[in-house]
Rhomboid family intramembrane serine protease (Rhizobium brockwellii), 261 residues
Amino acid sequence: MFIPLHDANTLKHIKVQWVTLALIALNIAVWLLTSLESEQAAQATTVGLGYIPAIAFGHAMLAQGLEIVPEPLTYLTYAFVHTGFWHLAGNMIFLWVFGDNVEDAMGHLRFLIFYLVCAAAGALCHGLLTMTSEAPLVGASGAVSGVVAAYVMLHPRVRVWVLVFFRVPLPLPAFVPLLLWIGQQFFMLAIAPDGDVSWGAHVGGILAGAFLILVLRRPGVPLFDRQIVTPRAVRNDPGAGPAIAAGTDGRTAQRFPWGRR
C-alpha cells in the first residue's frame, strides 16, 4: 500500500534512539552473515533460528544437529532472520521511521522489552493459528507491527511522508496510512490465513503493541496527540535553493522531507 519515508516528529525525552539503531544494525548483520553462507547453510540457519509451530506445540522435532538455540528462544530469534533484501528492507524502513518516537515515549530499556514481547506475541499468534505447520516463521514484521500500533496510538496526527503505490510521495496524518495498513492485516488474516505471509504474526504484534503502549509509556506521555505537525525545514535559509519556500508565518518551510531537526 505505501512505504513510509519520513515523519516530522522530533524526540522529546532522549537524544538518540540507541535501541532502534541497534535493532536495525543487528538485523542487517544477521542478514549479511546469512547471505554469505551457502544455500544449504542459510536454510539451516532459517530452520535453527526460525519459529516452527509444529515444534513449539510438540507435533514434530528438529533433526539432530539442526537446533541452534533452545526452542523457547525461537519466539525471539526468528525476528532477526530475513529471507531476502526486500524482506529486510521493508521491515527496517518501518522500524527506522516509527521506532524512534516509540522508544522516546518509553525509554531505552522499556522499548527493548516492548519490541521483544511484540515479536514473541507475533510468533505465538502465528503458532496458535498454524499449530501443525513445519514451515519456519522468520522476519521482524511481528515486532514492527507492534511499533506501528504504538505509534498510531501516540501520534495519529503527526504528518508522515509516504510513498503511495511505490510512486506518489504524499504527506498524510499518520492515522490515515497506518490505520489502513492495520486494517489490511486483519482483513488478510480473515481471507488468507494460510498464505505465504503470516498475517497472524502481524496481528499478534499489533495487539501486543496496542496493549503495551498503555502500560510502558513514560508517566505523563499522552495518547492520541491532537496537534497536526507538518514537516519542518532542516535549515532556515531563504537562499538555500528550490527546496525551501516561505511559510505563512514568515519563516522558511521545506517542501521535501529530507532529514529532521
User: Anything to note?
Assistant: Residues 230-261 have pLDDT under 50 and may be disordered. The longest strand covers residues 2-7. The radius of gyration is 20 Å.
